[in-house]
Design goal:
Blueprint (H helix, E strand, L loop, with lengths): L10 H15 L8 H4 L15 H28 L7 H18 L12 H16 L13 H5 L5 E3 L6 E4 L9 E3 L1 H14 L12 H7 L2 H6 L19 E2 L2 E2 H31 L2 H28 L4 H37 L7 H28 L4 H18 L1 H16 L7 E4 L2 E8 L3 E6 L4 E5 H5 L3 E3 L6 E9 L5 H16 L10 E7 L4 E9 L4 H22 L18 H4 L4
Antiparallel strand pairs: 1-2, 2-3, 4-5, 6-7, 6-10, 7-8, 8-9, 11-13, 12-13
């Protein structure tokens, strides 16, 4: 564990070092003021030279040394003055030193680190690499291969003699052809630093700056510099700098405060959601979006503060950063999922559709599929950001999807069947259909099955895959509804009355505006067992079953009135039994 002390008798000397870390660590573009950056025109287009191992090593050391040198004199001048705040020129010089540090970071290949932790790790790893190079022997630059030497070399890498620190050529990506400290070297920099931190510095090195920068509140001082004098953050007591799990105690207090405030905001959103949901109306829909939105706003803010302001590093910093960004992508997925449902219900409400109609279900299904695709995309991006290979995630999703498809073939078949039903719309909610011997009213069309309420008031559930492969008879889709009956008149009806009655019934139907005129069938049809049968058949226009029954009743009552007016009678079902006479009794008596 790294230990350092600041002697009380030389407080200003310690303050100089502490403030030096002020510009050294806080390198986030989000904290740098635009007006300060514009003053750093001494090196407007400076760039690290990575054309060869020699150029990379020289550029890295040069930019780091210039970064230290630019800030040291400014810090001394600021602390020697009676001013509470540094001047704009001093801050511009400090920003210039920060730019030098950022340029030095470009000599390292951070591709092996999770993208979400690169910003948090780049400063620390760059500083640790400088600490390592300040303590170990480095060959003269003439001994390090240049571009010409590497052009003829078999292996496009160079290893610092006596170490495992390698400068390797990048073969892919936007930095292909450059020589950088390789990914394996970058990953092992903390290990190299632990192995050499007990060694003395070489002459001319910047002694102890990493130790001070790792434990001082420089990020807080720079973040609050426009409002709070940086001096006030440089006089922390020694106990506040005592490390625990590589973090000073003041930083643990900052972590607790930031996470506590984040939790407070999330708890507030939970209470607001409950209140809006209780009140109902549009507030209920907004309440469902409040928690994921709060999670998406709070977690990255907390991650940036812990990373850029409090400079939480090491295992603790990596764990907190990855955890917070994981929660951010979980919140984004949650928001997309909830937002899809809210949009679907909003469209249904605007179009004034029945919530249980097929159109409503189709809208819900379509938006749900879109939200699933968006959620998968967010999870893939999130996995890549926290260090899980995106291609592995995609491959895993593909293998997992294939396994799910094989294990749930029937479920997928039912889902596809529901989609077909919703698109083709062979029936709608409330319509009277008959399928596979089941007859009744459609009560619900779901993503897996359709429920039919029979005329016996029982509920039949039919899987959608079975429904789409069956013959569906939709009675409510009829343009006309058939009325067919047989009128039985008594056998004693005279032929002239029979003929007149048939003609009157035909005229009765023809006069009805809801009866199709070209398909009226009224005729003396058959000699029935107990009646003279008259066939009455026509097509009636009626929007639904209730209207059909009402019009049928009206027609039947009109026929009854017509029969009474013409003096014809309807026959009762009768049957005549003829019994032949039995032989005489004497013929049955046996002779004596």
């Amino acid at each position: 564990m790294l230990q350092f002390t600041v002697p009380p008798r030389d407080r200003y000397r310690g303050a100089v070092r502490w403030v030096l870390c002020l510009w050294l660590w806080a390198c986030s573009p989000g904290i740098v003021h635009a007006e300060d950056v514009s003053d750093t025109n001494s090196y407007p287009l400076s760039s690290v030279d990575t054309s060869s191992p020699r150029a990379t090593l020289h550029s890295f050391i040069d930019f780091m040394n210039r970064s230290y040198a630019d800030g040291y004199m400014v810090v001394r001048a600021y602390l020697a003055s009676p001013r509470l705040f540094p001047t704009s020129e001093e801050m511009a010089t400090i920003r210039l030193g920060q730019n030098m540090l950022r340029l030095a970071e470009r000599a390292l290949d951070f591709s092996s680190l999770p993208p979400a932790t690169v910003t948090q790790s780049a400063h620390r790893l760059t500083m640790q690499l400088k600490e390592v190079l300040d303590r170990i022997p480095i060959p003269p630059l003439e001994a390090v291969p240049d571009a010409a030497a590497m052009a003829n070399a078999e292996f496009k890498r160079w290893t610092l003699p006596g170490t495992e620190i390698r400068i390797t050529r990048i073969d892919t990506g936007i930095r292909a052809g450059e020589y950088l400290f390789g990914p394996e070297t970058v990953t092992r920099i903390p290990e190299f630093y632990q192995r050499i931190e007990h060694l003395p510095y070489k002459p001319g090195s910047s002694e102890g700056l990493y130790g001070l920068a790792a434990y001082s509140p420089t990020g807080v001082a720079l973040a609050l510099e426009p409002w709070v004098p940086p001096r006030w953050f440089l006089a922390l007591p020694q106990w506040a700098l005592s490390p625990f799990l590589e973090q000073p105690l003041w930083r643990w207090v900052g972590i607790a405060v930031v996470l506590g405030i984040a939790l407070m905001f999330f708890q507030l959103s939970y209470r607001l959601r409950r209140r809006w949901r209780h009140n109902g109306g549009r507030g209920a829909n907004l309440g469902s979006l409040l928690r994921p939105i709060t999670l998406m706003l709070v977690t990255p803010t907390a991650a940036v503060i812990l990373d850029e302001v409090f400079k939480v590093s090491g295992v603790v910093g990596k764990t907190l950063t990855l955890s917070l960004w994981t929660l951010f992508f979980v919140g984004a997925t949650w928001l997309v999922w909830v937002l899809g449902s809210a949009i679907a219900e909003g469209v249904i409400a605007i179009e004034r559709l029945r919530t249980s109609s097929i159109d409503s279900q189709l809208i819900r299904l379509g938006l749900r599929l879109l939200t699933i695709i968006a959620a998968i995309a967010i999870l893939i991006v999130g996995a890549d950001q926290i260090g899980l290979p995106a291609y592995s995630v995609v491959a895993g999703l593909g293998v997992g999807g294939l396994a799910v498809a094989l294990a749930g073939q029937q479920t997928l078949a039912n889902l596809l069947g529901s989609v077909i039903i919703m698109l083709e719309k062979p029936f709608s909610i409330g319509q009277w259909i008959k399928v596979d011997g089941v007859e009744g009213t459609v009560e619900d069309v779901g993503f897996r099955s359709t429920r039919i309420r029979t005329f016996h008031d029982s509920l039949v559930t039919i899987p959608s895959s079975q429904l789409v492969s069956s013959t569906i008879d939709n009675f409510d889709r009829r343009h006309r509804r058939e009325i067919k009956t047989v009128l039985g008149l008594t056998y004693d009806t005279p032929p002239d009355k029979l003929e007149a009655f048939v003609l009157a019934v035909r005229e009765l139907l023809a006069a009805n505006p809801d009866v199709r005129k070209d398909n009226i069938q009224v005729a003396f049809y058959d000699f029935g067992p107990s009646s003279l049968d008259i066939l009455v058949k026509c097509l009636l226009r009626a929007p639904d079953r209730l209207a059909e029954l009402a019009e049928r009743e009206r027609i039947m009552l009109a026929i009854l009135n017509l029969a009474e007016a013409q003096g014809v009678r309807f026959a009762f079902p009768t049957q005549t039994l003829h019994v032949e006479s039995l032989p005489c009794k004497e013929h049955l008596t046996p002779p004596a």
